[in-house]
Amino acid sequence: MTENEFLATLAEFTTRTPETLTFADGLAEVGVDSIGVFEFSMKVEDELGKPIQFTDGVRTVQDLYECIEQAV
Fold first, then answer.
1. Which of 53, 42, 48, 35 is nearest to 5 (CA)?
2. DSSP letter at 70?
3. Does residue 59 contact residue 65 with C-beta atoms inside 8 Å?
4. Distance between CA atoms of 14 and 53, rounded to whole angstroms?
5. What dihedral angle (degrees, nearest 10) is formed by the CA atoms of 41, 17, 8, 43?
6. What is the pLDDT of residues 28-70, one digit of tens each?
7. Domains of the chain by start residue, with CATH
């Protein structure tokens, strides 16, 4: 999953457009709560066909992207 694909998918679960999301944004700042992370992860797992492991330390868009990269 490319960075652009990741941001486009994540934007579906945020209050922002893909163009306005940055990797430094906090998840809470862009409107993603724990349920949003779960729903996002289910969508990405379906697309990738691989499970994604998240830790409690996932607080930013960058943290979330790193979890996706580790799964790939």
1. 48
2. H
3. no
4. 20
5. 30
6. 999 998 898 889 999 999 988 988 888 778 999 999 999 989 8
7. 3-71 (1.10.1200.10)
